[in-house]
């Protein structure tokens, strides 16, 4: 991993535990940050759109409140090859298989960007495994739910200064390859997060950066309102606020876990 900058450089773990688990969808890499005695519930975060490393500083910040896992999806980041091109429920099935294999206690399940759709499917399918759900920078907002609109809004969002992020993302995008990247975007465009949340019964926290050009505040608030125990919290920064402001989500998530 290339050296991060500023706030990110101060939030790198001294050590972490790497594990690999076989699932029907492919081999999964997970990393565990923290020693497991910092809070009442473990946190499990799932990587974003083909990328994983950018979450490390924000998860290092979160790990002060409890054991924190970062799960890479089959075929992406540090995981093994996927058995086939997966859709969103397929990625969710891999996370469910990982939860079952590790037998981790009921968790606070965290998604950022595209993985908000994956974790919502997990929470709906395995309510006994998920104590609370965090959707950070959820996708895909109906306002941008097409290839041209999504690409346009992603480019607008990319104007926000995010030093070091492109260098971090590029090797993971290269590893995914064009075919898998096209499939990722297509299957997430077809999957509607708001429909899945109808089946989620655990407490829900929705986080959105105030400068996010991919997710509107109105839609983020609507998602929170779909849950009988939902809440919305604004964050500083753009869609990838977890990189620009890696400590921002720590207290809202800690409060949710408590």
TrEMBL record:
<feature type="domain" description="AB hydrolase-1">
    <location>
        <begin position="65"/>
        <end position="154"/>
    </location>
</feature>
<dbReference type="InterPro" id="IPR050266">
    <property type="entry name" value="AB_hydrolase_sf"/>
</dbReference>
<dbReference type="GO" id="GO:0016020">
    <property type="term" value="C:membrane"/>
</dbReference>
<dbReference type="InterPro" id="IPR029058">
    <property type="entry name" value="AB_hydrolase_fold"/>
</dbReference>
<protein>
    <submittedName>
        <fullName>Pimeloyl-ACP methyl ester carboxylesterase</fullName>
    </submittedName>
</protein>
<dbReference type="InterPro" id="IPR000073">
    <property type="entry name" value="AB_hydrolase_1"/>
</dbReference>
<dbReference type="Pfam" id="PF00561">
    <property type="entry name" value="Abhydrolase_1"/>
</dbReference>
<dbReference type="GO" id="GO:0003824">
    <property type="term" value="F:catalytic activity"/>
</dbReference>
